[in-house]
Amino acid sequence: MTSTIGFIGLGNMGGGMAANLLKNGYAVRAFDLSEDALRRAVEAGATACASAAEAAAGVDAVVTMLPAGAHVESVYSDAVFGAAAPGTLFLDCSTIDVATARRVIDAAEARGFAMVDAPVSGGIAAAAGGTLTFMAGGSDQAFARAQPILSAMGKAVIHAGAAGNGQAAKICNNMLLGATMVATCEAFAMAQKLGLDPQTFYDISSVSSGQSWSMTSYCPVPGVGPQSPSDNDYQGGFAVALMLKDLKLATQAAAQAGASVPMGNAAEALYQLLANRGEGERDFSVMMKLLQGN
Ligand code: NAD
């Protein structure tokens, strides 16, 4: 029998993810506040629903891919919990704060539902191509049920531990990425000022101890390293606004957990500066320009 998924939030990411569920034989009942997003999902083969509650009723699982914690909390409390049949599995794939993720999962479990937080690594192209990485938090039983659904939308699915640990893994990873990108840009800008050719510095550092993903897979200097958004005037890729969102979630979680994150705090302030300069839509490696003084 075909498994049916209620899918709520079919924007840049959710649209591609729902299309991959359909390609893998799932039926999808879709809801989004945006008519355009809903129309695109219907074109991919989903059935349109008139509300989140309608999408959550009579399905095997509900997947949400929404902007932030407040949207997730209200969609589950106001619509999904009341409409879903007993035994429905919930998967929230949005990137949200750890505290809200844990609160919503607790509320689901208190009503007898199983739920995982399963944020993703990978952008719009990975969502469309079905090559996302999912990091999921939740009980072993909930994860076992979620795994085949997540596998239909991604290339890797990792159980990060208890509820909320998916979000914790996501923000720790992206905080590390934000900080290494800033450090990589800073080093390239300084190397140039000291008279070192960027390609030469890349050739040395990429096989030395300063090497990182930010340098060798996503080099922020145009024309150096493999193809990356810097070669396209920092268009496409992972937007400054999204990096800033993740850094804010990271520093907020750090404050709540009593963790010292001086590098994360510095990266947040620098990405805020880029956003204030009107660079929010450009790729996050545009940090290079700020640190070059351009
Ligand atoms: P988006 O804004 O394109 O999509 C969100 C969708 O949710 C929109 O279509 C919006 O209309 C819908 N929505 C909002 N409130 C709703 C509600 N109450 N009911 C139904 N629909 C509602 O955002 P996106 O880029 O798809 O990102 C979604 C999530 O994925 C975010 O948490 C983001 O941080 C995360 N993420 C994004 C990327 C990326 O590269 N875009 C990468 C990794 C993770």
Automatic annotation (TrEMBL):
<dbReference type="Pfam" id="PF03446">
    <property type="entry name" value="NAD_binding_2"/>
</dbReference>
<protein>
    <recommendedName>
        <fullName>3-hydroxyisobutyrate dehydrogenase</fullName>
        <ecNumber>1.1.1.31</ecNumber>
    </recommendedName>
</protein>
<keyword id="KW-0560">Oxidoreductase</keyword>
<dbReference type="GO" id="GO:0008442">
    <property type="term" value="F:3-hydroxyisobutyrate dehydrogenase activity"/>
</dbReference>
<dbReference type="InterPro" id="IPR008927">
    <property type="entry name" value="6-PGluconate_DH-like_C_sf"/>
</dbReference>
<dbReference type="InterPro" id="IPR015815">
    <property type="entry name" value="HIBADH-related"/>
</dbReference>
<dbReference type="InterPro" id="IPR029154">
    <property type="entry name" value="HIBADH-like_NADP-bd"/>
</dbReference>
<keyword id="KW-0520">NAD</keyword>
<keyword id="KW-0101">Branched-chain amino acid catabolism</keyword>
<dbReference type="InterPro" id="IPR002204">
    <property type="entry name" value="3-OH-isobutyrate_DH-rel_CS"/>
</dbReference>
<feature type="domain" description="6-phosphogluconate dehydrogenase NADP-binding">
    <location>
        <begin position="4"/>
        <end position="161"/>
    </location>
</feature>
<feature type="domain" description="3-hydroxyisobutyrate dehydrogenase-like NAD-binding">
    <location>
        <begin position="164"/>
        <end position="291"/>
    </location>
</feature>
<dbReference type="Pfam" id="PF14833">
    <property type="entry name" value="NAD_binding_11"/>
</dbReference>
<dbReference type="InterPro" id="IPR036291">
    <property type="entry name" value="NAD(P)-bd_dom_sf"/>
</dbReference>
<comment type="pathway">
    <text>Amino-acid degradation; L-valine degradation.</text>
</comment>
<dbReference type="InterPro" id="IPR011548">
    <property type="entry name" value="HIBADH"/>
</dbReference>
<comment type="similarity">
    <text>Belongs to the HIBADH-related family.</text>
</comment>
<dbReference type="InterPro" id="IPR013328">
    <property type="entry name" value="6PGD_dom2"/>
</dbReference>
<dbReference type="InterPro" id="IPR006115">
    <property type="entry name" value="6PGDH_NADP-bd"/>
</dbReference>
